[in-house]
From TrEMBL:
This is Magnesium-dependent phosphatase 1. Coiled coil: none annotated. InterPro entries: HAD-like_sf, HAD_sf, HAD_SF_ppase_IIIC, MDP-1_euk, MDP_1_eu_arc. It comes from Solanum stoloniferum. CDD domains: HAD_MDP-1_like (cd07501). Signal peptide: none annotated. Pfam families: Acid_PPase (PF12689). The lineage of its organism: Eukaryota, Viridiplantae, Streptophyta, Embryophyta, Tracheophyta.
Length: 179
């Protein structure tokens, strides 16, 4: 919460991978009957976003959504997520994000994403989502990095808009020539 308070601009939606991002295992290798546990700081981070009014969602390519869902229930976090896209896919989560975008109507550049696989990070960041590669799951270090990169990216989006406004107002620019 304290870390989130340091940032003036927060994302509207934060999307998390499951395996090796929220919890330290592949859930396809586990049994539904087991009692799962998360990375130590993951639950606090989810609640921190909720308390700040930031929505959270899941994008997972797990081939066992039934086990993933059972674990989300057991951890008592399932109801926190406004969208839960859990399905295996040949794309590197671009399909997951299209679905999340359709469901939530949040623009890609107002989302923040945490995942432990570089290919997912590369693909999703090309869509305009600020995407952070995590090493040992999501923790306060990753959170700080994610929020500061989000601020940097949204500042450059604003700057581009401003430059475009200036450009289109200048006499002799292509836009006024056309009119
Ligand atoms: Mg993962």
């Amino acid at each position: 919460m304290e870390i989130m308070g340091l940032f003036q601009v927060l994302p509207r939606l934060v999307v998390f991978d499951l395996d090796y991002t929220l919890w330290p295992f592949y859930c396809e290798c586990r049994s539904k009957n087991e009692k799962p546990s998360m990375y130590p700081q993951a639950k606090g981070i989810l609640h921190g976003f909720k308390d700040k009014g930031v929505n959270v969602a899941i994008a997972s390519r797990s081939p066992t959504p039934d086990i993933a869902n059972a674990f989300l229930q057991k951890l008592e976090i399932k109801s926190m997520f406004v969208a839960q896209e859990i399905f295996s896919s040949w794309t590197h989560k671009t399909e997951h994000f299209q679905k999340i975008h359709r469901k939530t109507a949040v623009p890609y550049n107002e989302m923040l994403f945490f995942d432990d696989e570089n290919q997912n990070i590369q693909a999703v960041s090309k869509m305009g989502v600020t995407s952070i590669l995590v090493d040992k799951g999501v923790n306060l270090g990753a959170l700080r990095q994610g929020l500061s990169e989000f601020v940097k990216n949204s500042a450059s989006v604003e700057k581009n808009k401003e430059q475009w406004r200036k450009f289109s107002k200048e006499p002799g620019s292509s836009k006024s020539d056309a009119q």
